Structures are given as structure tokens and as C-alpha cells.
């Protein structure tokens, strides 16, 4: 089966028909949402504090809805006019910009608290025109992105590299632009669940977050997706025991120090001493 980036440039491939799939195909929607949720975890944003995020290759705004659910504000950029039309029809909360991220991101220095991208970066590894040089386009993206991020901000790209050459190219251009960080692979021994994330950091080198699935390689990918979908359908009450447990579990996946769960976790206090 041919990869989408080999069939046509993104602005042509993501036409009106293809864009509709992102509001009608439940499998595509679930995968997109799951990847966006993982990007949010890897950004390691301040808790209980709204941030301004940049969604690169925002498409129909599905990944932006994950940022909204986390209490953040987002700005989306995409090369496909058809995808952005669908986003407008869905009445997404984020502002939208039509543009090619390979030409750079045109924002003021220090504008965003973080940036993320789902299933977009691999398109820049492909030369759709004779003037397209993948290394140059990647460097342009990363250098302009670095400039518009705030101090100690992160950028996370989930993408589908075609081979080792592409992963090396992406990581080398990001570091050349001034980013720290590198490649993180979730479920590296699973055929279905294996996912690549480029985790980029500003302001100095920091430990990489732990990858998922490195201890237990037997992954039920469908069950994991269904569990996350069910969790989205039932929004947890803030400060409830379930809300606290989910938040602590998210911190553990991010590699943050977290207190152990006990029978007292989330229990309301009388206020008496």
C-alpha cells in the first residue's frame, strides 16, 4: 500500500473527500485523538494553568479539541484548505491559518507555550516540487518554531518515518536549528502500536520522558483505544477521586515524581483538626 505522501502533495491529497473522512471515519478519529493525547502528555505543560499552543498540521481540528479538553488555547496551521473548511464547519475554538509549515511559522518571538503536531512531519521529508529540499524545509520549520516558542517550552511531533534515513534527517535538522531532545518510540516491539514522537526542548537539555510499552511488549492496541475513547465520553468531575487518579497516572507516564495511591486519595476532609 502506497504512503499518502507518495501519491500527491498534501494540499492536493487532502481534498474535500479526504477531509470528510476526518469527521466520519471513527477509526481515523480515534487514532488521531489518541496521538494528540500522547502529545499533550509529552509536552509536560504546567498543571491547572491554561497555555497557548501551536498545532502544526491541525487539519480538521481534532487534535485541537484535545488541547481544549485539557484547558488550553490553540492556534492551528495547515496547508489544506479543504481540511480547514471542515474545521470551520465544526466550529472549533482555535484560530486557523492556511500555510505551508515547510516555509516556516510566521509568529512573533515567544508567542507560544508549546507546539505539537500529529501525522504531519513526514510530509516534509518528501520533495513534491523540484524546489523542495527536505533538509532545508525541515530546518526552516524548526528554526522559526524555536523562535516563536517561549522559554523552556517544548514541541512534540508524532510522525510516521519511512526509514532510518528520515528519522536521522529530522533529528539532525531539529538539533541544527537549536533544539535539544530527540526521538522517543512508544511500544517499540509492537507492529500495530509502535509510534514515533520527536520531543524537542528549548533552554537546555533535559531527560527524555519514558517511552510506553518498553517493559510489556504484549499490547492490545484496540482495547487501549477503546479505553481512551470511553474516558473521553465520560468527563470526570474535577477534584474527584477518579479525576485525581487519572491525573496522577498521567504524571507517572510523563516520568514525574508522584505520590503513591492510597485509600485516602481524593477523600474529602472535614476541616477539623
Automatic annotation (TrEMBL):
SUPFAM superfamilies: S-adenosyl-L-methionine-dependent methyltransferases (SSF53335). Transmembrane segments: none annotated. Residues 246-273 are annotated as: Disordered. Residues 54-127 form the Methyltransferase type domain. CDD domains: AdoMet_MTases (cd02440). One of its GO terms (cellular component) is cytoplasm. One of its GO terms (biological process) is rRNA (guanine-N7)-methylation. Gene3D superfamilies: Vaccinia Virus protein VP39. Coiled coil: none annotated. Keywords: Cytoplasm, Methyltransferase, Nucleus, S-adenosyl-L-methionine, Transferase. InterPro entries: Bud23-like (IPR039769), Bud23_C (IPR022238), Methyltransf_11 (IPR013216), SAM-dependent_MTases_sf (IPR029063). Its main location: cytoplasm. It is found in: Cytoplasm; Nucleus. It catalyses: a guanosine in 18S rRNA + S-adenosyl-L-methionine = an N(7)-methylguanosine in 18S rRNA + S-adenosyl-L-homocysteine. Residues 207-270 form the 18S rRNA (guanine(1575)-N(7))-methyltransferase Bud23 C-terminal domain. GO terms for molecular function: rRNA (guanine) methyltransferase activity. Heterodimer with TRMT112; this heterodimerization is necessary for the metabolic stability and activity of the catalytic subunit BUD23. Interacts with GRIP1. PANTHER family: 18S RRNA (GUANINE-N(7))-METHYLTRANSFERASE-RELATED, METHYLTRANSFERASE-RELATED. S-adenosyl-L-methionine-dependent methyltransferase that specifically methylates the N(7) position of a guanine in 18S rRNA. Requires the methyltransferase adapter protein TRM112 for full rRNA methyltransferase activity. Involved in the pre-rRNA processing steps leading to small-subunit rRNA production independently of its RNA-modifying catalytic activity. Important for biogenesis end export of the 40S ribosomal subunit independent on its methyltransferase activity. Locus-specific steroid receptor coactivator. Belongs to the class I-like SAM-binding methyltransferase superfamily. BUD23/WBSCR22 family. This is 18S rRNA (guanine-N(7))-methyltransferase. It comes from Aphis gossypii (Cotton aphid).
Amino acid at each position: 500500500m502506497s504512503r499518502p505522501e507518495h501519491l500527491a502533495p498534501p494540499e492536493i491529497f487532502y481534498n474535500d473527500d479526504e477531509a470528510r473522512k476526518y469527521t466520519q471515519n471513527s477509526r481515523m478519529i480515534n487514532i488521531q485523538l489518541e496521538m494528540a493525547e500522547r502529545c499533550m502528555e509529552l509536552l509536560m505543560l504546567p498543571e491547572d494553568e491554561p497555555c497557548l499552543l501551536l498545532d502544526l498540521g491541525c487539519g480538521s481540528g481534532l487534535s485541537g479539541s484535545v488541547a481544549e479538553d485539557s484547558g488550553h488555547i490553540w492556534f492551528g496551521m495547515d496547508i489544506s484548505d479543504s481540511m480547514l473548511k471542515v474545521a470551520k464547519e465544526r466550529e472549533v475554538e482555535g484560530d486557523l491559518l492556511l500555510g505551508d509549515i515547510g516555509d516556516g511559522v510566521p509568529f512573533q518571538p515567544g508567542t507560544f507555550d508549546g507546539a505539537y503536531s500529529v501525522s504531519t512531519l513526514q510530509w516534509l521529508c518528501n520533495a513534491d516540487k523540484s524546489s523542495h529540499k527536505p533538509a532545508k524545509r525541515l530546518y526552516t520549520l524548526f528554526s522559526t518554531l524555536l523562535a516563536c516558542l517561549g522559554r523552556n517550552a517544548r514541541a512534540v511531533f508524532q510522525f510516521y518515518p519511512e526509514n532510518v534515513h528520515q528519522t536521522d534527517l529530522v533529528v539532525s535538522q531539529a538539533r541544527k536549528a537549536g533544539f535539544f531532545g530527540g526521538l522517543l518510540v512508544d511500544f517499540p516491539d509492537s507492529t500495530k502500536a509502535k509510534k514515533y514522537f520527536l520531543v524537542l526542548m528549548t533552554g537546555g537539555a533535559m531527560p527524555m520522558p519514558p517511552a510506553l510499552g518498553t517493559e510489556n511488549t504484549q499490547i492490545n492496541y484496540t482495547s487501549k483505544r477503546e479505553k481512551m475513547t470511553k474516558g473521553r465520553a465520560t468527563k470526570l468531575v474535577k477534584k474527584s477521586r477518579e479525576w485525581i487518579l487519572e491525573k496522577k497516572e498521567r504524571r507517572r507516564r510523563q516520568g514525574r515524581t508522584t505520590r503513591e495511591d492510597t485509600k485516602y486519595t481524593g477523600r474529602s476532609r472535614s476541616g477539623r483538626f
